[in-house]
Design goal:
- By secondary structure, the chain is an alpha/beta fold.
- The protein is built from twelve helices and eight strands.
- The protein is 47% helix and 12% strand.
- Helix 2 links the parallel strand 1 and strand 2.
- Helix 2 crosses helix 4 and helix 5 packs parallel to helix 6.
- It is globular, with a radius of gyration of 20 Å.
- Bound molecules: sulfopyruvate (SPV) and magnesium ion.
- Magnesium ion binds next to helix 3.
Length: 292
C-alpha cells in the first residue's frame, strides 16, 4: 500500500482534478469538523472569520503566530486539507519566507497571499484597497514557491477589488504565473458573477482559477464548473449563520425568562459530545485502563 497522501498533495490533486473543489470557511476546529461532516473537499482558514471570532477587524490586527495557531488548529482537527488565508503575507518577503516555512511545518496544505499592501483591509470594507507594487508581490510569490517543500501557493488578485480593472488583473495573473504560483484567486465584490466570468474567459494561462462567491451568491456550482473554475471558497457563510442563530436564541431567553421555548431548536449536548470525539475518548480510556 502506498503512503497516505500528504495534505498539500491532496489539495494539489483536488485543484487539478476535473470538477469544482468546494471549500468551506472555518474559524475553529469545531466549525472545521462541521465542514468535513457536510462533505466539503477542503477547509479555508478564513482571516475574516478568525478575526471576527476574536472580536477584532480583519485588518492584520492579529499577527502571524495567532493566524498560524488558528489555521494549525483546523488542520489538526480534520482529515481534509486546509488552505490558509495569509492576507498579504504578514509583511515583506522575509515575513513570507517565515510564513511558508512555519505553515508547512504545522501541516497546512496551502497558503493564499493577496497582492495588497501590509496591513491589509478586508476586501468588503471601504478604505485603503491599494495594490502592492507588482514586482514586490511577484517577489513574494517567487520566494514562497522556492522556499516551500510541497505547500500549495495561491496568488490572490485584488485588482478588481481595488478598482484597477480587468487589464491589471490579467497582467498580474501572467506575472504571478511566471513567478511560480500554483493557482490564482480572482476576487470580486460585485453582486453578479460577470467580472469573474470575464476574467476566466480572458485569462489564457495554465493555472487553476479560484473564486470566492460571497456577494455574487446566486452563482451555482454547475455554472462555475461550466465556466472552467477549479475551486470555490464559501468563506464566511458558516460564521454568519451561527451569529444569526446565537442572536435569536439569546434574545429569546431574555424575553421569555426560560430556555424551554428555545430548547427544541438547539443542538443536543450529544451532538456537541460527538464533535468533541467523546465516544472515542471513552473507548480508548476503557481499552488502556484494562491493559494497565
Ligand atoms: C476571508 O475569508 O478572510 C477572505 C475572503 O479573505 S474575503 O473576506 O472575501 O476577503
Ligand atoms: Mg481574508
Amino acid at each position: 500500500p502506498s503512503a497516505p497522501m500528504g495534505a498539500a498533495q491532496a489539495l494539489r490533486a483536488s485543484l487539478k482534478s476535473p470538477g469544482l473543489t468546494r471549500v468551506m470557511g472555518a474559524h475553529n476546529p469545531l466549525s472545521a469538523r462541521l465542514a468535513e461532516e457536510a462533505g466539503f473537499d477542503a477547509v479555508w482558514s478564513s482571516g475574516l472569520e478568525i478575526s471576527a471570532a476574536a472580536g477584532v477587524p480583519d485588518a492584520n490586527i492579529l499577527a502571524l503566530p495567532e493566524c498560524l495557531e488558528a489555521a494549525a488548529g483546523l488542520a489538526n482537527a480534520v482529515a481534509l486539507p486546509v488552505l490558509a488565508d495569509c492576507d498579504s503575507g504578514f509583511g515583506n518577503v522575509n515575513n513570507v519566507i517565515h510564513m511558508v516555512q512555519t505553515y508547512e511545518a504545522r501541516g497546512l496544505a496551502g497558503v493564499c497571499i493577496e497582492d495588497k499592501q501590509f496591513p491589509k483591509l478586508n476586501s468588503f470594507v471601504e478604505g485603503n484597497q491599494d495594490l502592492a507594487p507588482l514586482d514586490d508581490f511577484a517577489g513574494k510569490i517567487r520566494a514562497a514557491t522556492e522556499m516551500r517543500k510541497d505547500l500549495v501557493v495561491v496568488a490572490r488578485l485584488e485588482a478588481l477589488i481595488s478598482g484597477k480593472g480587468m487589464d491589471e488583473a490579467l497582467r498580474r495573473a501572467e506575472v504571478y504565473e511566471r513567478a511560480g504560483a500554483d493557482a490564482l484567486l480572482i476576487h470580486s465584490k460585485l453582486t453578479e458573477p460577470d467580472e469573474v466570468f470575464a476574467f476566466r474567459e480572458a485569462y489564457d494561462g495554465d493555472l487553476p482559477v479560484v473564486v470566492v462567491p460571497t456577494t455574487y451568491n446566486q452563482v451555482t456550482v454547475g455554472e462555475l464548473e461550466e465556466r472552467g473554475f477549479a475551486m470555490a471558497i464559501y468563506a464566511n457563510q458558516a460564521l454568519r449563520s451561527s451569529l444569526r442563530a446565537m442572536r435569536e436564541t439569546l434574545s429569546r431567553i431574555m424575553r421569555d425568562g426560560t430556555t424551554r421555548h428555545v430548547e427544541e431548536e438547539l443542538a443536543s449536548l450529544k451532538e456537541i459530545f460527538d464533535l468533541q470525539r467523546v465516544p472515542q475518548m471513552l473507548e480508548r480510556q476503557a481499552r488502556y485502563e484494562e491493559l494497565g
